Recover the amino acids of this structure.
């Protein structure tokens, strides 16, 4: 069996700039004060996703919304729980932009997470698409109290 080599790096400046740009585009969508708490912004994201799911959009448009909403959602996790943006290559064709918990126990790909929800590919136990934006955000509170078998456990 082939061993996969994990590689975790800081995001390159162009990726940081792109995430910041998408996050700012999302802030313009909310048209609210930047003094709102991360939890309130995540609640807004959840409600906005619900509205998007009620209408018909092209996959391309939904992916663009996912970038904006995912960038803001990720930033809210960073602000609320002190996670960090990283680029992770798991060495098995799984790689991308993640937010990583302070002790490196867990990671989450926020852009992919929002894309799955908006493309209706985030199936729950009942087989229906679930908008788990707020649920996952709340689950991150104290998540590192339980250490997984290996670091960088992916959660979505």
């Amino acid at each position: 069996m082939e061993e996969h080599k994990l590689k975790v790096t800081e995001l390159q400046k162009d990726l940081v700039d792109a995430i910041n740009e998408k996050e700012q585009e999302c802030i313009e969508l909310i048209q609210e004060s930047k003094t709102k708490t991360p939890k309130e912004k995540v609640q807004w994201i959840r409600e906005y996703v619900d509205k998007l799911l009620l209408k018909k959009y092209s996959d391309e448009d939904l992916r663009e919304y996912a970038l904006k909403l995912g960038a803001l959602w990720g930033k809210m996790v960073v602000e609320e729980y002190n996670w960090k943006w990283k680029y992770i290559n798991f060495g098995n064709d799984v790689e991308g932009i993640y937010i990583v918990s302070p002790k490196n126990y867990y990671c989450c790909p926020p852009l992919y997470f929002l894309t799955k929800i908006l493309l209706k590919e985030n199936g729950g136990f009942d087989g229906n698409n679930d908008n788990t934006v707020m649920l996952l955000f709340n689950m991150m509170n104290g998540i590192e109290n339980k250490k997984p078998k290996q670091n960088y456990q992916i959660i979505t």
